[in-house]
Amino acid sequence: MAVLRPGRKTLLSPCTTKGSTAQVSYGAKVRWHRESPSPALPGDHPTLRVATGGPVRGSVGSTPKGLPLMRVLARDLSAHVGTEVTVAGWLHRRRQLKSVSFAILRDRTGLVQVVLTGPDADQLADLTEETVLQVTGIATANRQAPDGVEITAPVLTTLSESARPAPFDLYRPNVPAGLSVVLDHAGVALRHPMLRAPFEISAAAVRGFRAHLDGEGFTEIHTPKIVGTVTESGANVFALDYFGRPAYLAQSPQFYKQTMVGVFERVYEVGPVFRAEPHDTARHLAQYTSLDVEVGFITDHHDVMAILTRTLAGTLDTIAHEVPDALDRLRIALPEVPEKIPEIDFVAAQKLLAAHTDEDPRGEPDLAPAHERWLSGWAQREHGSRFLYVTGYPTIKRPFYTHPDPNNPERTRSFDLLFDGLELVTGGQRLHRHSDYLSALSKRGEDPRQYMWYLGTFAHGMPPHGGFAIGLERLTGRITGADNIRSVTLFPRDLHRLTP
Amino acid sequence: MAVLRPGRKTLLSPCTTKGSTAQVSYGAKVRWHRESPSPALPGDHPTLRVATGGPVRGSVGSTPKGLPLMRVLARDLSAHVGTEVTVAGWLHRRRQLKSVSFAILRDRTGLVQVVLTGPDADQLADLTEETVLQVTGIATANRQAPDGVEITAPVLTTLSESARPAPFDLYRPNVPAGLSVVLDHAGVALRHPMLRAPFEISAAAVRGFRAHLDGEGFTEIHTPKIVGTVTESGANVFALDYFGRPAYLAQSPQFYKQTMVGVFERVYEVGPVFRAEPHDTARHLAQYTSLDVEVGFITDHHDVMAILTRTLAGTLDTIAHEVPDALDRLRIALPEVPEKIPEIDFVAAQKLLAAHTDEDPRGEPDLAPAHERWLSGWAQREHGSRFLYVTGYPTIKRPFYTHPDPNNPERTRSFDLLFDGLELVTGGQRLHRHSDYLSALSKRGEDPRQYMWYLGTFAHGMPPHGGFAIGLERLTGRITGADNIRSVTLFPRDLHRLTP
Known about the structure:
The structure is a homodimer. Chain A has helices at 179-184, 186-189, 193-215, 254-264, 301-322, 324-329, 346-356, 369-383, 434-443, 452-459, 472-480, and strands at residues 84-96, 100-107, 110-117, 132-141, 149-160, 219-220, 226-227, 239-242, 245-249, 266-274, 287-296, 343-345, 387-391, 404-405, 408-412, 414-419, 422-430, 465-471. Chain A is α+β, with helices and mostly antiparallel strands.
């Protein structure tokens, strides 16, 4: 994204897309959507009915007679050529030339060019960018206008003033501001078509994730974010005063999603998790959105990986089909998810690194980021895949509930999914027998009383199960190639940032 | 639900449904699903392929040769009559008679009857309820068996032991335990078909809510749950140590969803909100799931009400179509959402109460619960509707961002939606002009510096907009007729409860 790559020049304007027609001769480039399948928007094709519960008026003001006007979206304007229409949105840009003036109006589906000639142009005189306008005029064919249509003979009505200039020009093709300016003024900055694109992708990703899992018989759950005991990693939790008692913000729904396998067999949750990360880096957040999955009646972690592979394919497919112009705006080529994502065993990966790089990581309990990058490059070269599973991580580096490899208790039935050199997903099979939990905790010197209710789950018969978690911001960040995870997080929380 | 209505007798067993066939002569009633359209479950019709990324094996164990077995779900068993099948699930109930024994197996789609005769019956001897089993046998037609099929000549394999008896018998048609036992042992208690039903309804409700809004062009967002300042109500917030600074858990995504109207026009969020409610009642929770909606370019609150009406209809429709047997199990008749939900003005409602009841609430700033119940009854009698909009609440009782009635600044463009006598949704139009916010705060004697970033949103041009919020647990509670909101909340948080 432009804001993150000040050194990278792009000719892309938010108003041009692969699918768009020729440049407009007189300057204003006025399209960012492209014709693509999209759901019907009944609210945007309102009738004049005013009955509550009937088709919504979706109006933007009233005529003098009190009848609501029909609002046409930028995307649909070309279907109305030759008729009087009303559009509404933000004044994206004004251009006042000698003989003609243009108002570019922005709504959620794109931009509309409004042409003002003669005395009509006076209406623009006092308006500033980001004023909310309603424009009624004639949808007029103009082969040189994008989408072949513009609005002529317009009457502009101000719905809401813009009291203060935006921190930077929202109409510039690239974002002329650094990340901190964007984040400090997120509410207005994200109106820039390049900056809002990651959040369109993010919303489509979650929709695709859920739709795929719904189709595989999963049930969505919502679990507590306030918990009574510090579990798992112990460190990095936010402490809370809970009616006079200590409590903590949940770092993960791990224990709850496992428990719910006993009820629904297959569950997922999309929700916030909290980490009191003292690190001020481009990839740490104090709150992120976790896409959590857990599934029962598996043979081992390979069943979990198969579900993850299909879920990822479904997620990317939804992005490709539902937000093609967000992808166009950012000039993103979505990765292919191979039907078989290549898999390499942890020890084999270390051997490969020892044989082909200057380093010899054999015997180390984890992979360094540089190792992950090299392995990803290897998967790309050898298997043509931007994705790679690394399996069989050492027990010592995985949480106590991780299922050991029955043939080698020092290794686990776990995996990481690397995407373009970075870990995108962590998962694996979990223990499912009550006695196995007790001995796993005892081996680590942990007190089972810390885990009372969680252990209770396994005392009542739990099937072999496993799961994974995807960080939504990390996924969006990888897809968009963001350099900083904050640029793909709505109102990020970190060591320093608590507003907006 | 049985646990909440100890006094209410029902003949409903979790094993019988409207759609089920005749009672089984020899006791075990073994079905709770009914044939209804449901998504394909590719993971449950696995092949023998073991390739990662290909169709999942979905297996439940391995044969001696290491080849995974095909698992058939209870729901699909009748399609396999005459063949050898493997089912897997929990031992729901054992019945050992003189000449024949039965094992009832429970999976996420229903119950399966397994018949053990002769020496086969010995396999049941040491098994306790909730043991996780894999059963391979012949799917055998038996007209007297529910769904016309049972498993004969079975081989039982234990996948996981049940180390401890459940706190109550999960196989009893009604729940022989009180709410606190259920909540303390939620992980196992919710396996009871009656107790899990509300969460199937809840998941379907959220799915329907999102699907409807997606279809109307809304974008899903995820906003911060940790905030820097106490806003709105002020009281009842949880305080937090945020890297040494004070912070709070968000009581609502109100400010964020309004801000995002400037970016996407139409947004929704499904997420947790937190209230440090010191009240220990049947309807207060410290965390609940809020379904939040905000929409721009409206004329007034009636546009918001129209969207709410359609969203509610879509939500209930999804429940009806996707989880009919959860409804059957609880014997629930879903309410009809009329195309036009009746609407009554606040003052008119008070006049009605004064005229037809012993009380005269005229001049009071709000409706008492008893008034809401009476009005709901009136809407049912006069309009045949279980839903009623009350509009035009006094300004003094609504938050500062509520849009006043232009004809009467002491009243607002706000509404409550009553359902069966209780407030289900609150919403309305919001202020959208920067100057209006400044004077609204000033009138209430509030310091605008408390709201710095939020006010900034309105300094940059915001369209007329409004929205609403539905509490998911309250919705599920109303639909299921729950007496206590905790019974429709996964692992509730309240004044006393912080585990599980």
